[in-house]
Design brief:
This protein is of the alpha/beta class. The protein is about 40% helix and about 20% strand. The strands form two sheets. It has a five-stranded mixed sheet. Strands 7-6-8-5-9 form a five-stranded mixed sheet, sandwiched between helices.
Length: about 260
């Protein structure tokens, strides 16, 4: 076992032990409340069902943009576990001492995709100076998540790196989260959109035009951590389970990968 992984497991085990010994024992019977990025909705709901079937413990989820969830935690929302779609919003809550830092792990990675409605005939090679503005047409808009949302930030970064952001900057249809951007394309309201690869794979009304080069944007990482105020020992147990083989199989089914050590 790699030393880094061993240290993470030992740290998480220590958090689990501390929570189990905590005086607030009545919380043990409560469901684990997970605040998670909207792009994780389908996969985490399935993972939660698998965990409940395995352990008998209940897990409930609140899905939204990572930015919105981080601010809800800051305002005292009753979450036990936070899973962000980028490091920046996890850093935001960490700086405010709202997570148990020893429990923080990089859980998953993802890819960024250019998508179109499933019946669209648009063909583009995703790369530098691609004619994306021309593909949108005179009135078409490009669906993206909002600028402070991780998926939206990755999209703007990638479009800028490829030299095409200025050509579409005035044609953006910004959604409150990545699933809103996905729905813009799925409903045919926009001819193109930028979402996560995993979002496109679960929506039959869209197709992937191409994947953005990984070097065109910051690496997409989903960190997870326990909220510092939680006294529910099942939260640490669920986070530990999410790093195991059974959860890995669920994540792989939806196209998510584990970060490389």
């Amino acid at each position: 076992m790699h030393n880094a992984l061993r240290r993470r497991i030992l740290a998480l085990a220590a958090v689990l032990l501390a929570l189990t010994a905590a005086p607030a024992a009545p919380a043990q019977g409560q469901p684990v409340t997970v605040f998670a990025a909207s792009s994780l909705q389908n996969v985490l709901e399935e993972a939660g069902k698998a965990y409940t079937a395995r352990t008998g413990k209940q897990v409930r989820f609140s899905f939204a943009a990572s930015s919105a969830l981080a601010r809800q935690i800051e305002q005292g929302a009753p979450a036990h576990l936070f899973v962000s779609a980028d490091a920046a919003w996890m850093d935001y809550v960490a700086a405010r001492r709202l997570i148990a830092s020893a429990s923080r792990v990089d859980l998953l990675t993802n890819r960024l995709a250019l998508i179109a409605p499933s019946g669209s005939r648009v063909r583009l090679t995703v790369g530098r100076n691609m004619p994306i503005a021309a593909a949108l047409g005179p009135n078409g808009r490009l669906a993206v998540a909002g600028a402070e949302v991780p998926a939206g930030r990755y999209a703007r970064e990638a479009l800028t790196a490829l030299g095409v952001f200025k050509s579409v900057e005035g044609k953006l249809a910004a959604g409150e989260n990545v699933r809103t951007a996905l729905n813009f394309v799925a409903r045919g309201e926009t001819p193109l959109g930028v979402v996560y690869d995993t979002d496109a794979k679960i929506e039959p009304r869209v197709r992937i035009v191409g994947l953005f080069p990984e070097g065109s944007h910051a690496k997409i990482i989903y960190p997870a951590a326990l909220v510092s105020t939680t006294s529910n020992p099942d939260a640490a147990a669920f986070l530990y389970w999410l790093r195991g083989a059974e959860a890995t199989a669920v994540f792989a089914k939806y196209g998510f990968a584990r970060p490389k050590a």
